Amino acid sequence: MKSQLMTLQHEFHKHGPHDLLIAADGCPIHDALDAATCYLEAVVHGLRDLMSESAVSNEATLLFFAAETALALTYAAHAGVDASQGGAA
Question: To bridge 30 with a disulfide, which of 17, 62, 83, 86 should be the other Cys (CB 3.0-4.6 Å)?
């Protein structure tokens, strides 16, 4: 049996010398991917609703396609984690 894949700490928003937002160290990778999937699905659904409004610019459509692509990559990454390491593969 392989050991479970875990996240590594990684800062993604610095303000001066401080890491304000970080990805936590030691979370099972499938939990992190599930959380990312939930957030991206919410963004995609919200942007899809915005696209139906005639007053919204084409920018919302471009953002929708970017978010949808990020979501597809997250699905693929989640599916690619070996089942013995806590993934869906």
Answer: 86
